[in-house]
Design a protein that fits this description.
The structure holds three protein chains of three kinds.
Chain A: E1 5-16, E2 19-30, E3 34-38, H1 45-52, E4 60-65, H2 76-81, E5 84-87, H3 99-104, H4 115-128, H5 144-156, E6 162-166, H6 174-189, E7 193-197, H7 201-207, E8 210-215, E9 218-224, H8 230-238, H9 244-251, H10 253-256, E10 265-272, E11 279-283, E12 288-292, H11 299-307, E13 312-319, E14 322-324, H12 329-334, E15 337-340, H13 344-348, H14 355-367, H15 375-388, H16 405-418, E16 423-427, H17 435-450, E17 454-458, H18 462-468, E18 471-476, E19 479-485, H19 491-499
Parallel strand pairs in A: 3-7, 3-8, 5-6, 6-7, 12-17, 12-18, 15-16, 16-17
Antiparallel strand pairs in A: 1-2, 1-4, 8-9, 10-11, 10-13, 13-14, 18-19
Helix pairs in contact in A: 9-17, 14-15, 14-16
Chain B: H1 2-36, H2 42-58, E1 63-69, H3 76-88, E2 95-101, H4 105-117, E3 122-125, H5 134-142, E4 146-151, E5 163-166, H6 169-181, E6 188-194, H7 200-215, E7 219-226, H8 231-244, E8 250-253, H9 256-269, E9 280-284, H10 288-295, E10 301-303, H11 310-321, E11 330-332, E12 337-339, H12 345-351
Parallel strand pairs in B: 1-2, 1-3, 3-4, 4-5, 5-11, 6-7, 6-8, 8-9, 9-10
Antiparallel strand pairs in B: 10-12
Helix pairs in contact in B: 1-4, 6-7, 8-9, 10-12
Chain C: H1 2-11, H2 15-31, E1 39-42, E2 48-51, H3 53-60, H4 62-78, H5 85-101, H6 114-137, H7 143-161, H8 188-206, H9 209-218, H10 220-225, H11 230-256, H12 268-278, H13 290-309, H14 317-332, H15 334-357
Antiparallel strand pairs in C: 1-2
The chains are: A alpha/beta, B alpha/beta, C mainly alpha.
């Protein structure tokens, strides 16, 4: 059963105003394989998948599915009927319905629903996949990870031939990822073809059989996993040979010794209404440190408390030894603190506004309501940072929402850098963005620190933090449980501190 | 089977919701009445009714009346009408009166039901709409509540009410058109600004003019539009005729507000109006300010629509209490038409409302 | 090249309102070219005045244009609309009358200078706006629901301010605001709108109101994290609209020197919302273009005047406006726009193919 072609996409072409998103792209999926679709943001992965699922209509090209020539897919419903199911990175379910309703919504052909049967069926699947949720539970009360798994369960239950997983792991912790991989292998054994889109290279090499690489809307090639070592994959995605990963390593020593005497920022017994326990924290000039811990351990909530993003309930905060009151984001900004939030769509970008307006926003707020920048000033700022951070945008007037994820992140980064903060907090700046941008951001963090900026860096990829941070604050169950630096900064020490075993 | 049960349950829930919402409406009605007329509140009404329930057995000297009227803010006419009723139905005159106001028929019907439940002796009604009153009036009859209509008639069997005191809108229109004909113009080019279409006043006042314009060759309706009793709309309508360049020499507005709006448009365009001027201006309702315009000879004619029905109602109630049925079921009030060339300050003081 | 130019034009926010204006103008031009005639005459005070349909549109569209400015801001910031503007006009107008006439309904002279009455009206309007704004921004009530309160109670409050009386302002100077100033043949309302537009333009230029309002409307959470106070911005938008209402009520009261509380500015809120939509602004908030809304307001008045001219019964006007709304919604729907552009591409392709075969 291996190696029978399940899905063929030939010469797919798709244009949007101003962008040729896909140019003559081929893609082949065999039954019983897990096929990674790789590429930087903007390479055309999302577009290809949206064409396959009927969200976009293709301009040219042919799709053959399961022996049927040139199938017509005009809507997600068509795709579903053909056995193509998708689980997206963002949860696309309804949080106010129950788990079971979410699994069966829009699927019943009968006008009347048998609720009890639906619930018991749902429970059966949830048990089988070992998903910690009840059928009658409201979906919104589940964690994001569980919601994601419910979405997969929904797809699995629809007897799909082709399962598309579009970055399903970006909000899952390691255990959950393992569970998902187990599930993927099971499905593979039953002959389902799985298209797996992810930014985590480790995961690709853990579960996938083949890789198709796209770059700038064009096909780079299709490879067997064993024929393509990591470094080559990265270089194919970026379109150049590079050794950046090792470059970073050597940079690290540059700032390690600088341990200025007085902390730039110091908090004692700080806590907020987001449910974290009071914690102590400080950062020195030119230091890069980080909060680590499992999902939900309170690492984001801690930095939000520092920035005043949640309601601060207590604690003493000092900047350069002088006590300050930070009650809200604006107070923090006035004290030279900048915060790049975890969820760039919800907390970061102002989607409909232009790149220019998004970049100047924070500095503009600092400058004051009655002192707007002139157009010329705003353009100068925007152009400066578009160049500096290599933001790929048609112009400074382009709405930021039409940029790719990595470039949106750079825009928000530009917004805060423009403010020239003393202390920069980056919460998951590399999440859901391409390898090239990830490396750019890590390098930038180290450069900024060398220039004297204090930076707190949070990432769910531990190796990124090990590469950049000189000190790690470890959290568990919304509490600080340890601090690692110097020799202790190893993967295994982090693990054992998180796990809590002595 | 379960599905069927689920369906039934759903419909039961839906029905009970509907039930709730209708109760809500009743509350809303009374709330509207409260805000509309700060002097009479529902609290007062219910208190009053409780009071009478208590006193009825002890000393029932007062005649209990429930009065349902239109919103007094609707027009100067209505304000005067309401004030007249309030002045008549007082404790001093031997009445215990409760008031309810609404421009909506269904809210009025609800108010009527409330009054019937509160066991009023007389229900005085100025209906917002002519239809839909049979059931509630039958209820009233069954409960021994006597109904007297004022100001507006309804489409119901005359046996359901004791008397109806109304203005004859047709007669008002006829009086006005007769006056206009008596001006002996060689040509009548009329801008006809109508009230809310379908209302009794509009139908009556439009009817006479339409008939005349159809019958006479030298009468032309240049423009016939409804301004819905609204001065601003009337102003725009007349402005539109002026802009089109059509010639006209009469403005026949079915109330004073609309006549005022029309005159504002004439003023802006430099068209003279009033006694001996280019355009004849006619209005209705005899607002005091309108009669003053007549006195100043800026307008030519104003038709009365008598809002003072309280004394008529009072005498009918007195007769009924004495066991006498009213001689006529429908009592038409006396109404005048004022000519700018003959009106006096006394007329303004006596007949001007507001 | 032509294709991209065409696309640029059709995707511009002003495209739909300008197209609507153009269509209306064409229809009128075909049916009756004299529609566009403007003549100079004198009014009954002996002052020179311009008249004609175009002047009428400019004159009577003024209140709507002013309200559209505020409504655009409220829509942008809150993602909802204020449906109480008509009732609030009754309140501010009534307050103005009360100050001008005192407790006397037929005063011989003004009880207070016009400017004082206007300022009082402005304060009352801003208070009403603050009331709505507080409900929306602090208590997080849907704007339409929040403003339903004043929508329902406003006209009764207006009547209560003047004890149910309808005072008439005696001073002829007061009529200048809704009419003509002696010696100037252009309606004063036109100047009032121009002043409002200039003031708004200056505010947008010299403050960050536009940027903050749009930010809050697009992404409230994100705006807060950038140091913007969304509560304050929403309040400001509603207070600004309150001010617009006060100015509009000055014109309304001035037109007839009095008002009728129950019918003044009736249903104007729907026209104001329609103006915002007609200007191509999203009714769910975010990006806005105030000038497009103002244009939208005049288009509505253009339509109204045209319909009056064609003798359409005025109680049927709402139905015609509904047709406009439907067309508008359909044409601005992404689906229709996409298929339209596809149609254009196909035609262009066909043309190219033809050229090739020849």
């Amino acid at each position: 059963m291996e190696n029978t072609t399940l899905l063929e996409m030939r010469s797919i072409d798709k244009s949007f105003p101003g962008v040729h998103a896909l140019q003559n792209v081929d893609f082949t999926l065999r039954s019983g394989e897990i096929h990674a679709l790789m590429g930087e943001n903007g390479a055309g992965k999302s577009t290809l998948i949206k064409v396959l699922t009927g969200v976009y209509s293709k301009d040219q090209g042919v799709i053959n599915l399961d022996g049927r020539f040139d199938v017509k897919i005009h809507s997600p419903q068509d795709a579903q009927n053909l056995g193509i199911s998708t689980v997206y990175q963002e949860i696309t379910l309804c949080p106010n319905l129950t788990v079971a309703e979410n699994m069966y919504i829009g699927r019943g052909k009968k006008p009347i629903t048998n609720w009890r049967k639906m619930n018991s069926d749902a429970d059966k699947i949830l048990r089988k996949l070992d998903i910690p949720a009840r059928a009658t539970q409201q979906l919104g009360t589940c964690s994001i990870a569980v919601q994601q798994m419910v979405a997969i369960a929904r797809a699995v239950d629809m007897d799909c031939k082709v399962l598309i997983l579009d970055e399903p792991t970006s909000s899952l912790d390691e255990q959950e990822v393992e569970k998902l991989f187990g599930l993927m292998r099971d499905l593979k054994a039953t002959g389902v073809g799985i298209i797996f889109v992810t930014h985590f290279l480790d995961q690709v090499y853990e579960v996938c059989d083949r890789i198709t690489v796209l770059r700038d809307g064009q096909l780079v090639g299709e490879y067997e996993i064993k024929d393509l070592p990591r470094v080559q994959l990265v270089s194919k995605m970026l379109g150049k040979e590079m050794d950046d990963l090792s470059d970073i390593k050597s940079d690290q020593d540059a700032y390690l010794g600088e341990d200025a005497d007085e902390p730039v920022y110091e908090a004692t017994q700080l806590w907020s209404d987001a449910g974290i326990k009071p914690f102590d924290f400080h950062i020195r000039k030119g230091e890069v440190n980080g909060f680590t811990g499992l999902l939900g351990s309170g690492r984001s909530e801690s930095v939000r408390a520092i920035f005043g993003a949640d309601r601060v309930l207590g604690g003493i905060v000092r900047m350069h030894g002088r006590q300050v009151h930070i009650r809200g984001p604006k107070d923090a900004m006035k004290n030279g603190i900048a915060y790049l939030p975890e969820d760039r769509k919800i907390d970061g970008i102002i989607g409909d506004l232009s790149v220019r307006e998004n970049i100047i926003l924070a500095l503009q707020v600092m400058k004051g309501f009655f002192k707007p920048f002139t157009k010329a000033q705003a353009y100068a700022f925007a152009d400066e940072y578009i160049k500096k951070l290599n933001i790929k945008t048609a112009s400074a007037d382009t709405p930021v929402k039409s940029l790719s994820g990595g470039n949106q992140q750079k825009v928000i980064l530009a917004r805060w850098l423009l403010m020239h903060p003393e202390y920069l907090i980056l919460d998951e700046p590399t999440r859901g963005i391409d390898v090239g941008t990830k490396i750019d951001i890590q390098k930038l963090v180290l450069e900024l620190a060398k220039d004297g900026m204090s930076i707190t860096f949070i990432s769910s990829e531990t190796d990124e933090m090990l590469r950049t941070c000189s000190r790690l604050i470890v959290m568990r169950d919304r509490k600080v449980v340890g601090e690692l630096s110097g020799e202790d900064l190893t993967q295994s020490m982090i693990m054992s501190t998180i796990a809590g075993g002595e | 089977m379960k599905k069927a049960i689920a369906l039934t349950m759903a419909s039961v829930v839906a029905l009970s919701l509907a039930g709730c919402s209708s109760k809500e409406t009743t509350k809303a009605t009374t709330a509207a009445a409260t805000t509309a007329a700060p002097t009479t509140t529902q609290a007062e009404t219910t208190e009053a009714s409780k009071e009478t329930e208590a006193t009825k057995t002890e000393s029932s000297g007062l005649i209990k009346v429930g009065i349902i009227n239109n919103d007094p803010n609707e027009s100067g006419y209505r304000t005067a009408n309401d004030a007249d009723l309030k002045a008549m139905f007082t404790k001093e005159n031997g009445y215990d009166a409760s008031f309810a106001y609404s421009l909506k028929n269904d809210e009025q019907i609800q108010a009527a039901q409330t009054f019937i439940q509160n066991e009023v002796d007389y229900l005085l009604l100025s209906a917002a709409d002519t239809a839909g009153w049979d059931t509630v009036l039958q209820d009233a009859q069954a409960a021994g509540v006597k109904v007297i209509l004022f100001d507006r008639t309804i489409d119901a069997d005359p046996s359901l009410y004791e008397a109806s005191i109304v203005s004859d809108m047709k007669k008002e229109g006829q009086t006005a058109v007769d006056w206009l004909a008596s001006q002996n113009l060689t040509e009548y080019n009329v801008i006809h600004i109508q009230g809310v279409m379908g209302s009794a006043a509009q139908q009556g006042r439009s009817g006479a003019l339409d008939t005349k314009a159809n019958a006479e060759s030298n009468w032309t309706i240049v423009k016939q539009q409804t301004a819905e009793w609204n001065a601003e709309k009337a102003q725009q309508i007349v402005q539109s005729v002026i802009d089109s360049g059509a010639s006209f020499n009469v403005i026949y507005a079915e109330n004073d507000d609309m006549a005022k709006g029309a005159v504002a448009a004439l003023d802006a365009a430099g068209i003279s109006h009033g006694v001996g001027k280019d355009v004849i201006v006619m209005g209705f309702d005899c607002n005091k300010w309108a009669l003053e315009e007549l006195l100043a000879k800026n307008w030519n004619y104003d038709g009365q629509c008598n809002p003072f029905q309280a004394s008529y109602i009072d005498s009918i109630i007195k007769d009924l209490e004495a066991g006498k049925a009213p001689a006529e079921k429908t009592i038409i009030m006396e109404e005048k038409g004022f000519d700018a060339s003959t009106i006096t300050q006394d007329d303004v003081n006596k007949y001007g409302i507001g | 090249m032509n294709k991209s130019l065409l696309k640029k034009i059709t995707s511009n926010q002003l495209f739909i309102p300008l197209l609507a204006l153009f269509l209306l103008a064409i229809i009128n031009l075909i049916v009756d070219p004299s529609f566009f005639k403007v003549t100079l005459g004198t009014n009954n005070e002996g002052n020179p005045v311009l008249s004609g349909y175009l002047i009428t549109i400019l004159d009577y569209g003024s209140e709507l244009a002013i309200l559209a400015i505020g409504m655009t801001l409220v829509t942008s910031a809150s993602g909802g609309q204020d449906i109480s503007v008509g009732a609030t006009i009754a309140i501010t107008g009534s307050a103005m009358l009360r100050v001008l006439c005192g407790s006397n309904t037929r005063p011989e002279q003004l009880a207070a200078p016009i400017i004082v009455a206007f300022l009082v009206a402005c304060i009352v309007g801003m208070l009403c706006g603050a009331f709505n704004g507080a409900l929306v921004s602090i208590f997080k009530i849907q704007p339409m629901i929040a403003t339903l309160i004043l929508f329902t109670a406003g006209r009764s409050i207006a009547a209560w301010i003047n004890n149910n009386e309808l005072p008439i302002v005696p001073d002829p100077k007061f009529k200048y605001f809704g009419g003509f100033i002696p010696g100037i043949p252009i309606p004063t309302t036109v100047f009032i709108v121009i002043i409002c537009v200039i003031v708004t333009a200056l505010i947008l230029k010299f403050t960050n109101l536009g940027l903050y309002t749009q930010s809050v409307g697009i992404n409230e959470k994100s705006s807060r994290l950038n140091g913007i106070n969304p509560t304050m911005i929403k309040m400001l938008a509603f207070i600004f609209l309150g001010l617009c209402v006060a100015v509009a009520s000055l014109i309304k009261v001035s037109r007839l020197a009095t008002i009728n509380y129950s019918v003044i500015a009736k249903d104007i809120e729907m026209d104001a919302i329609l103006a915002v939509a007609l200007g191509g602004n999203s009714l769910s908030g975010g990006k806005f273009n105030i000038w497009a809304s103002v244009l939208g307001a005049y288009i509505i008045q253009f339509l109204t005047t045209t319909l009056y001219k064609f003798n359409v019964q005025s109680d049927a006007l709402a139905a015609y406006k509904a047709v406009v709304v439907i067309l508008l919604v359909v044409f601005s729907a992404p689906k229709v726009r996409e298929s339209l552009s596809r149609l254009k591409t196909k035609k262009a392709l066909k043309a190219v193919n033809k050229g090739e075969t020849k």
